[in-house]
Structure formats: C-alpha cells, structure tokens
C-alpha cells in the first residue's frame, strides 16, 4: 500500500479498469490492488500519554516448561500513536544492531506513557549497549518547533530511518552517533513534503543536530522507503520523486547520499535523480529499497513496479522487481534491469513450482491455463540485502495476478514468501520459497499493514534470514492478529532452517509468548548479533490497540530469539561447499515431484560425476555414478519413485566440486 501521504487530501481514487484475457477465476480470490492512497496515514499529532488498559487484551502466560521457541520480551520506549512504525511498505531501518559495539537501537517518534505531554512529531530512540538485555529509553534527539498558527508543526517528523555510526572506529558506543533521516510536514508554494535529518551523540546526549530540506519543483520529497548505511560510512536514502499534491510521479527516484563531516560533527548530504520510468497505467513505483554488501562498494537499488519491459502473461498487468547496480560505492548506477517472474522465460520456481495442479484447477475456470500462461506478481512491499558474494537477495511476497491491474490473489494457499536471488551478479536469477502466509493485510482503524516482509543477514552476510507477519488462526481472514515468522537460508548449500510448529517451514517467533497474535508492526534489524554460534535476530513490535489507531503504543523488544550454526548444517552433507569454477547445478525441476525430476549440470571441464540423495538427517538413500562426462551442459534424471514423500537433499559431485540442492518428493 504505497504511498502514505503527509497531508490529508480530499481526492478519491478510482481503480483502473483493464480488459483482461479470457482466463477467469472461479474462487473468491480476495485480491488486493496496489494504489497510491492519499487517505491513509495522516493522523492527529496528539499529546496522549496514557496507554490503554491491558485487561482489554487476551494475554498469554508461557508454560513452566518453556521450549526453545518461546521468547523473552521486554518493554522499551513508547510513542503517541502507532504511525511511526505503521507505514505500509515503508521504512525498514527502525531497529539497528552493531556487533562491534554490542549495541541495539530502536528509533521512533515520541509521546506515550514514558513521555507525558510528548509530541509525536519529535524523534527519539531507545538503546541497549549490552546486546539487548538492558535498555535506556526515550532519548530525545529532534524537537519540532516551526508553527505558524496551524494545526501542525511544519517540521513535525514522520516515518524515520536510522543507523549507528562510530567515526572513531572504536568499540565504545559513547564514541558513536545515531544517524537519522525521515520526512516532515513542511511545504511551500503548493508543493508538499520535506526531509528532516541529523545526528545525535550517544555519549553526550545533549548534542544533536537538526537539518531541514523543503521540496521544490524538481525534488518532491515524500516518504523515503529505502535506506542503508554502508561499511564505507555512507548514509544513502531512496525515495520516489512523487508530487503528493497533484499525484504525479516524475519518472525518477531521488537518491540522497551523505558522508560524515568531522568539522561539522554532522552528515552532509547531496541528492541526484535516477531515471525510473513506469507504465502510465500504474503511475508510480510501489516500493523502493537500497542495500550494499560487506565491501561497501557493491550495492543495489530496487523498486517494485512495471516499466513495460517484462513479458506480460495472458493480458495481466503485474508488478515485478526492477534494479540498478553499482560497483563503485554509488558513484554510478547501471540499469534499470528487470526480473521476469512468469512465462516461458520466468523463474522456474514460480512458473512450475508455485502452484500445484490441484491449486490451478481450483483457481481457474476451465479450460485452465498452461503454467507458462499464468501471470504472477509481487505484493506491494519488499526488502533487500547483499550477501557475502556481492549478490542481491530480494525478500518479497508473490502470488498469481488478480483480475484488476496490479492486484494480487490473496486467497489462502496462493501467497508465497520468497527470496529472489542471483549467484552471478545478476546474469541469472533463482527463487526459494520460505513459507506460505495464510493472510495478507491487517487493518487497525485507518492504519493498514501488509505482511511487512524483511531481510536480515549474518555479520559475514553468508546467512540470510527472511521475516514476515502472518496470522495462524484458522478463523481469521485478514492479518489482524499477527505473529512474527522467520526462516534462515544458506544461499550456497540451499539449506534452510527447520521450522516450528511445522518442521519443513518457517519458525513462529512469537508462538506462546506475550507477543502471540499481537506482534503488530513487527520489525527486525538489518544484521544479526552473534554470540558463540548463535545468530540473534533483534526484533521489535508495537503493543497497540487494534481497534483504535490513535492510542499510544508501547514498543516491545524480543531479547533472545536465535538460530545456531548447527541449523545450517545437516549431518553427512553439512561440510559441502560449492566450487563454481568447475560445475554449475540448477535447482531440480519439477519440484515438488512424484516420480522423476531433472537437473541441469554445466561442466567447465571433463569430470567424474556422481549424484547422491540424502534425507534431512543426512542418511544417503541413493547414489548414481555417471562416470566421466565431457565439458558442457548435461541434463540428469533423479528417480524418486522409491522415495517416501518428504524433503531430501541431492548432492552433485563433479571432480572436487560438491553442490547441494534441496528437493521435495510428493
């Protein structure tokens, strides 16, 4: 649901009409459409400070024999209302974790029980310098003061992004600064929107800076969706250049880059425009993100949009990822490039694996379309990361395209939370499913929130963790009582973490905890904290009243949810690595399968080749020696007719190369 505007505009939105193909749905698809909605997200800037009574909520007391999936949750800061976190499809840098300083911060708007009389147009943060155990809350760093007699302060700050930066390079958080960047309510000459940004010293809380940019007739500032802070010390912000008053997209993105100025003790920012054309029927980019890899030089900007370049299936207008790439720290950007989701040239994991034959028969009226004719789309928000090998990962929800342009089928069973990723810098793309959300969107008063899919990496960026919100209650049609779900993924071995309560699936983080069914606006840091062999994921969420979007909220922090290194190792195959200099191995297709599946092998030189199949616990159930194969491409068959239904791993051994993929037997 992009984009929440900064001023309540009395403009109605009518959905586009579009002549679709003869393909017809035969079930209630409960589809959702991407619209630029000006009526969502503007809330009174109140001074309320009393939290609602918890007696109105159903609370959950963990049993005495807690299992490992029940987490410990602590109260941190408060805010005057949920809108600081509750921006659909928006900012993802609300929680920051720094391993070197063992520090976690939660950046938010002020107000609520811990800030009596506080103004929700001010910024503050909560901080832990012992890895999230103990907290200092409500450190105010930005105060709105500009008021010309109207209802709103012009410099009232809104949906923030932030990071923590230590220019000294020490491990002492007192030497570090909180770096923040967000929109405000400023406007001039019938142009609406401004940016507020600055820094705040952690060691000297009296020191903080305040800078304001006001939109003009070239740069229309809105709500920046994309933010990252690189290992080279660059603060980078991405926004679509969208005129909020006239609702006109300018066909480009605003790229804002800042660097530390030691003389000013502040960040200095410059901005530029990046061409990002979309089709007229859509009229905007649905979501924008930016991420850099560990080297600080390789980075990507992504949008969810339709620029007319992808092949359209069956007359359905859809959304798909479009990206730009830099290898020089953001000085130059190559692109745009698009990722074809569907059709004969689409991602096989979507085209051939996303829907079963039974689901296709259930979804479409006869004659059902061929798999290559089914249109797929992304949902309306996403998140990205760059792994240790400088390859892009896109966490996004995908599903069949609905009957309206740029809509997605949200009926249960048809959505997938996926990682779309490359292993060769963008020359080709793969997709791995992390889970199947039951529901899509929650509505809380005038506030809405989709699955809020997010991506976290390990410190070395060799492990990927994808999180989202979903309701597991069978009687819930909408995502109004959310839990936090997550799955870890190793992009080289393709090993995924085992889930709970379903083994081959994601883990329900808030299961049986205080946050069960009420992990509203759940947010996770970009990086894990790591202790021994644990990958700790720093999660926060809002304790809010789902029936009143103007009540104050309490922020909650989950202290101890983690995976271990063992979660990415399976006995018998856990030590296998991929050596791409000799062999390349595709994902098997089809997958899942019943009797036979196929694998494409590319050999750079003649090699002795063996294919082994293992169970989840590492037991080898089959092995086939193909002898010496010549260099070039080969298609191999894996016989699954004697295998019980379940999850297996196949390993291709080509000379010194060992490459493992997961497969599913139905």
Structural class: mainly beta
Beta-strand fraction estimate: 35-45%
Side-by-side strand order of the widest sheet: 2-34-33-30
Given as residue ranges, the uncertain stretches (5+ residues, pLDDT < 50) are 1-20, 45-66, 571-581
Main sheet characteristics = 4 strands, antiparallel
**Rounded average pLDDT:** 86
Determine Rg (CA atoms, Å).
24 Å
Shape: globular
Task: Give the end-to-end Cα distance, rounded to a whole number of Å.
Answer: 36 Å
Secondary structure: number of strands: 42
How is this structure best described in words?
- The structure is a single chain.
- With 666 residues, the protein is mostly beta strands.
- 2% of the residues lie in helices and 40% in strands.
- Among the domains are: 74-275, no CATH class; 583-665, Immunoglobulin-like, CATH 2.60.40.2550.
- The strands form twelve sheets. Strands 2-34-33-30 form a four-stranded antiparallel sheet, with no helix packed on it.
- The relative contact order is 0.12.
Summarize this structure briefly.
2% of the residues lie in helices and 40% in strands. Among the domains are: 74-275, no CATH class; 583-665, Immunoglobulin-like (Sandwich), CATH 2.60.40.2550.
What distinguishing features does this structure have?
mainly beta; 4-stranded antiparallel sheet; 2 helices; 42 strands
Lay out the secondary structure:
Elements: E1 32-33, E2 73-79, E3 95-98, E4 103-109, E5 123-128, E6 136-142, E7 161-165, E8 177-188, E9 191-201, E10 211-214, E11 226-229, E12 235-243, E13 248-261, E14 266-275, E15 287-292, E16 299-305, E17 320-326, E18 334-338, H1 348-351, H2 357-363, E19 376-386, E20 392-400, E21 407-408, E22 416-421, E23 430-435, E24 442-444, E25 447-449, E26 454-457, E27 464-470, E28 483-489, E29 507-508, E30 520-524, E31 529-531, E32 534-536, E33 539-543, E34 553-558, E35 562-564, E36 583-585, E37 596-603, E38 607-615, E39 620-629, E40 632-639, E41 646-654, E42 657-665
Antiparallel strand pairs: 1-21, 2-34, 3-4, 4-5, 5-6, 7-8, 8-9, 9-10, 11-12, 12-13, 13-14, 15-16, 16-17, 17-18, 19-20, 20-22, 22-23, 24-25, 26-27, 27-28, 28-29, 30-33, 31-32, 32-35, 33-34, 36-37, 37-40, 38-39, 38-41, 41-42
